[in-house]
Every structure is written in C-alpha cells, then in structure tokens.
Design brief:
heterodimer; A: Luciferase, domain 3; GMP Synthetase, Chain A, domain 3; seven-stranded mixed beta sheet; 16 helices; 26 strands; B: mainly beta; six-stranded antiparallel beta sheet; globular
Amino acid sequence: MHTSLLLEMAADAFPDRVAIGSLEGGVTFEELKHRARGAAAWFNSQAGETVVFIGYNGPALSSAVFGSAMAGKPFAPLNYRLTDPDLRKLLARTAPSIAIVDDDMLERVRGIEGVTVTGRNEFAAHCRDHIAQGAELPEVDPDIAVLLFTSGTTGEPKAAVLRHRHLASYVISTVEFMGAEEEECSLVSVPPYHIASISAALTGVYSGRRAVYIPNFTPEAWVDVASFEKVTHAMVVPTMLDRILSVLETRGEKLPHLRALSYGGGRMPLPTIEKAVTLLPQVDFVNAYGLTETSSTISVLGPEDHRTAIASDDPNVRRRLGSVGRPLPALEVEIRDAEGHAVGPGVPGEVYVRGEQVAGEYLHKKVIQDDGWFPTNDSGWLDDEGYLFLEGRLDDVIVRGGENMSPGEIEDVLRTHPGVADVAVLGVPDDRWGERVAAVIVPSGEAAPSVEELSEWVRTRLRSTKTPETWEFRAELPYNETGKLLRRVLKAELAEAAERPRD
Amino acid sequence: MELKPGSRWKSSVCNAEVVVVRPPKGSDLNLECGGVAMTPLAGEKPAGATLNPAFAEGVQSGKRYFDEDTGLEVLGSKAGDGSLSLNGRPLQRREAKALPASD
C-alpha cells in the first residue's frame, strides 16, 4: 500500500479540518492534498530521482513527504547540523536529486553535480504553480518511500531504506483512522531527519490530528507553543523533557490542555519521569521504543503501565517504569543469545523483531533475515509478563575478563545516588582484563560525591566486578541534538586519556 | 483476479473502495463488494450490476477486513453500502485495540 493514500483518505473524510498550523489560517487536509499534488507534479518535471530536504521542521515537510510519495521518488531528509563538508558529501551521494533547502542554508549546499537546489520559498511557489496548472499525476508503483541516513557515529552514515509498505503497515496497524477529536493537536519538535518526524507526519494525517511545529527546539519555545496552541499530544526525546520541566516549574505553567506525552529515542532517567508525572498529573505518559529500520515504534509502555508501576510496592512491577513496555500487537520480539538461540525471560541478549513494518535494510545492504527477523543490535531482556528492558547498543556492552556487563544497569544504579545528576558508563581498554568499567559522573551539587562513596554505592547494589575502576567528573556529557549520548566520543576521549603517561 | 499487495479496487455496485494490504494464499479468488466482483480502480464498472441485499452491511473507510482462510486483508479507503466477501464468504472486520499515540 502507498503512503499517499493515507492523505487522500484523510482529505476525503475531513476536508475542512485543519491538518497543520493554527486553527486560524492553518492548512486543511484538502489544502494539504492539493499542495502535495502540486509538489508531486513539480518533482515529476525534474530530473532528480530523490527528493532531499535540508532545513527546519514546518508545514513544507508534509507537502514534501506526501508529494515525493505521489511522484514515486524517495524522500531523504538530511541533518542540517552536520558540518558543511559532511553535509555536502552526503548530499552528493543522493545525486541525481532535487534538494529543498531552507533559504538561509542555500549557500552551504550550492554547486554539487547532479543536485538541483531549490529554496524553501521557491519550492512553495512551484507547488502553487503546479496546482494552478492542475497537472495529472501518473500512477506510480510504490517502492522506496524514505531514505534516512543514520547518525554515523561510526564511519560513513548508512542510508536506511523504508518502503511504502513498511510505513503504511505501521500507520494502519497502530493508528485509528480519523480517531482524533477535532480539538486535538500535536506538537512536533523533533527534526525532519529523525524517524519520529516522518512517522508523525504520516500518523498525524491518518488520525486526523492537527499538527503544529517548532522549527528548532528550545524548552521555552516548546512551552510557549504548547500553551498557545492548546496542544494535547507531544513526543519528546529524553534531553528535551528535563529542560521542559524546568521551564514549567519556573513559570508555574500547568499546560491544562496537554493529555498525552510520549518519549523515546534514548534512555529516560527515572527521576525525570517521576518529576514529570508529579508536575503534569493530568497527562498520560507513553514510553516508545523504536528504530529507524522498524518504521518507528515497536514497543510501548502505556499510561496504565506507568500508573501501575508508580503505585506498586512490588519491585518487579515498579521497575517496569524503566522498561520500554510491551511489543505492539502486530509484531513479534525475541531475545537471542550470541549463538542465535532464543532465550527465556530474565536472560539478556540481542533484541530481534519481526513484522510488516520492519524494513531492516540499508541501501545496497539487507540486514533483515530471510525469515523476516531483524537483529536490532540492541541488548535487552524480557520479564515474565513480556515487558522489554533495554541495556544499550550491543557494541556498548562491556566485556571484562570474559564477563558481559551492561552499561545501562550500572548507570541506573549510579543515577539513584543523590549526588549524581547524569552519568555514562563505558568500557576502556585494559591490559589485564581486556576492558575495564569506567564511569563519567556529572555531579548534581557543587561538591561531587567521593569515589569511595560511589564505589560502595555500586558494590552493595550490584557486585564488585561491576564497580567502575576508572572515575571521571565532568560538568556535562556529550549528547547529539536528538538526545543520544555520544558514547563513542566519550570512549575515545577516555581511551586516549588512559594511554597518556601519567604526570 | 490478482489481489496483489497495494492493488486498489472499487465496488461495481456502490461507492466503496479498498486497497489490499495482505495478499491471499490460493488461486481462483474473487473479491466482491455487495455480492458482485470488484473492479480495478482504474477500470470500467460493469453495466447493470446491482447490490445483492445479502451483502449490504457496508464498508467503512479506515477499517480493515480479513479472510481467515486465505489470509487476505484489505483496508477500506472509501465508504460504501455493499459489504465485502471473498468467493461469497463474508470478510470479517478487524477490531484493533487503539494504541496510545507514540510519535
């Protein structure tokens, strides 16, 4: 099934409802369909075979996503925060292509062979012209819908391939068509090159929920827009939530219209969630786990799960607040050991997933297996009732003298220490053990807790081999703008420090 | 008829339209709406066909319908008065549990 049908159905069902922007002057579903058709007609008139998007989030994103779908050309949003040389290198890989670029970024990307660069205002004008001409769109055979370049913290960025059938399966199996009430509104604050932004464009349309954007995230802007637009639904990444909560506290803002807040894209510190639940008692919290390669969400810790876990005295139930919930009904999830055999509850291993939304494919490289199972490269385990607990990327697991240790488990323990605001645990090279456990601590107060105290804290809660042997204290940890801890950056810095002769 | 994934069909007797989301296993299969074989979206509806009252429960837009025996699943993309069947066997509506919004 083709993703453009999602928009056609929405425009048929609720033509006059606002799809994007404010209730006054926003773009209706009917208008969005026209704009997308105009965009498609213009894309068809161009030689480029891929539609690239470089810029902030905004209404043009939806026209471009659906327009490229209607034209049968893959949509490839690029990370405008890359350095100029990296951005140009990536853009050159998309040739022959058409690039829609924010006007103030145009100078960064001009003059690449095979890439037709168009400013965002010019793109809007092209869409209008082609609507006016009423061009007929030829039928297209649906194939690749989206190419998303992975963040590339290791080597060259890889282009994850999502076909129309994967995205359409995801949408129709997780969203009720036109299930949103008229007053509902979602706030999109993730950048266009994040899978959650693409899936939000599709699920928003299918659910009939109005969407508003903030072009570039700041916690103040987020709270302003959420309040002004009476936002009911929003998705945030971990680094955003903590900052949003601080603004809410300072202003005493309660966001009475907000009903549902989902978070994902990285490990959310438990204290942040507990604080959010206290500050926003009327809000349903949803923790979603997903990957680009799986068309977004594959498991969900729903509002009821949050309430049950918070209210429970049973440690096994309470710890589920730190899980990513249970797999979506249309999917299967398995944990497998290093030999590829499925393991039972409580045993950690690699998370495998299978289902119609799972693409598991990169340009020129298929990772999904012939039987449909996709190895996620995430390490995790399931509890007795099927709740999934993640331990981090498989490559981040620390191997000390043959023993596998999850950084996430040690981080969680350290994070419960009152003197710790943030923490990263990783393996550094060690002559004797292969790797040893290192911890980088961001203290919460002026005086950092002592190494002895922190070591004791871990030793009594886990065991001595899991107690970090190297400690570092810093003012902050390196994150990328979508909230992912840059472990490899940290690891390289620590490894370098370890090799330097001591003074 | 060849019920390929992504193929779109319109009712020969009402306004309903569907898209195939999961193809059926087997051959000699006919997808009907209102008791009459459906027409490819781009095709001409047969003249004079009428809705069989035994298949008049309607198709709803945005609902999924499936056939247990063959695995066929279609999505209603436009509503209509006729109801869906495969070789005369009524399709069943999938009652999906609503999931909390996550993106």
